[in-house]
Amino acid sequence: MIKNTAEDVKxxxxxxxxxxxxxxxxxxxxxxxxxxxxxTELGALLGEAMDQSSETWHDNxxxxxxxxxxxxxxxxxxxxxxGLGSALLLDYPHTSDQAATIGSIVGVRYPGESSTDNLLxxxxxxxxxxxxxxxxxxxxxxxxxxxxxxxxxxxxxxIGDTALYNAPGHSLAVAVVNVQQLDPQYLID
Length: 189
What we know:
Elements: H1 6-14, E1 18-20, H2 22-52, H3 61-85, E2 87-89, E3 104-109, E4 117-122, E5 142-145, H4 149-154, E6 162-167, E7 170-181
C-alpha cells in the first residue's frame, strides 16, 4: 500500500489515478457485483417483455424501458471498472495525523452557522462504511470525494484553516474545526 499524505493524494489525482482506502475497494467491488445481479434480472425482464411484445414498433415500450435501464447499469459499471482500474490502494492515515487526507473525518463550519458538519473524505466511494459504536471519532458524516470541489479544497488542511471552493454558481468558504482520522479497527467487515 501507498503512504497516505495530502501531497501524494493531490499528485495522484493530477496523474488521473484514484487513491482509495481498502474499505472503498471492498464497497466498490460489492457495488459492481450488485450491478451484475441487476443486469441479470433485467435480462429476465427483457425476455418476458419480448415474449409479450408485438411485432409492431409502437407496442414495444416495455422492451425499450428495460433496454434503457440496462444501458444505465452498463454505464455505472463501466465507471466503476474504469475507476478501479486506475485505483491505488492507500494506507489509512495515522490517527495522530492532523492534516486532512483520504480517510479523514473533517468537521467544517459554514459562515454564519453554529453547527458543525462532519465530512468523511474518500477517494471514490460515496457510501459510508459500517462502523462500530465505540469508535472514538464521529460515526455520522456526509461523504465527500477527493475529486469533488470541496474534497479537493480540504486536502492538506488542518484545524483553523479555511477551505475555499467553487459550488455551482458561486464560491463558498468553510472553516475546518476538527480533523480526525478513520481508524480501520473500528470498521465492521
